[in-house]
Automatic annotation (TrEMBL):
InterPro entries registered for this protein in UniProt: AAA_dom, DNA_Partitioning_ATPase, P-loop_NTPase
Protein name as catalogued: Sporulation initiation inhibitor protein Soj
Upper classification of the organism: Eukaryota, Metazoa, Porifera, Demospongiae, Heteroscleromorpha
Domain AAA: 1-175
PANTHER family: P-LOOP CONTAINING NUCLEOSIDE TRIPHOSPHATE HYDROLASE, PARA FAMILY PROTEIN CT_582
One Pfam family of this chain: AAA_31
Amino acid sequence: RVFAVANQKGGVGKTTTTVNLSACFAERSLKTLVIDLDPQANATTSVGLDPRGLDASIYQVLLRDIELDEIVEPTMIKGLHIAPSSLDLAGAEIELVSAFSRESKLREAISGAVADYDIIMIDCPPSLGLLTINGLTAADEVMVPIQAEYFALEGLTQLVRNIGMVQRSLNPGLELTKVILTMYDARTNLSRDVAREVRAHYGDKVCWQVVPRTVRLSEAPSFGQPITLYDSLSKGATAYRALAKEVLRGTP
């Protein structure tokens, strides 16, 4: 299955969710590929790679017709691989405007690789531009991490509208299947109220497992490790393992 992890709002735990869920899938012996579509390359650094030291990235795949398998790198977790990002990707939005089949570049690139992996996770940038549209066009399903805060639903409404647009014109099989509450603080009324409101709007698409707000989850990327390596017994690692199990129950 191919999942796009998307939210046009920044700071909602999108990359954290992509990397840590992928690490949990790999722990369960599922061969997993992370595609880092974000020019900030946070998913790339979160698995211990330095984008500045790489010969090629997903940029060359999208705009220079390099094969995806030529840029895929192994990580420190067995079964977890990454198609890294780089700063070059920052100019891709502009370059893609004039490209042939510009919305489908990623789908074409991964078509030959889908059979090689059990799960592909696409970390989309925090915007609704051409890179995110490429991610949505290439995916079977969309996961949306949202922070348990007051304006959570506001951004989600616009994203759902865009997913519908991609469904109608580019990818009829695309589905929003998972909404994930992140940075959840069970001690606050706000987190509980937001969770209640999100569940009222999106029903069983909202995962029951929430991701707590923890210092260890925030620290792990700076050490270039998923939480399952950085602190395997932490609340964050436990939450993402449970979330991976919940996601897989809904995966054919």
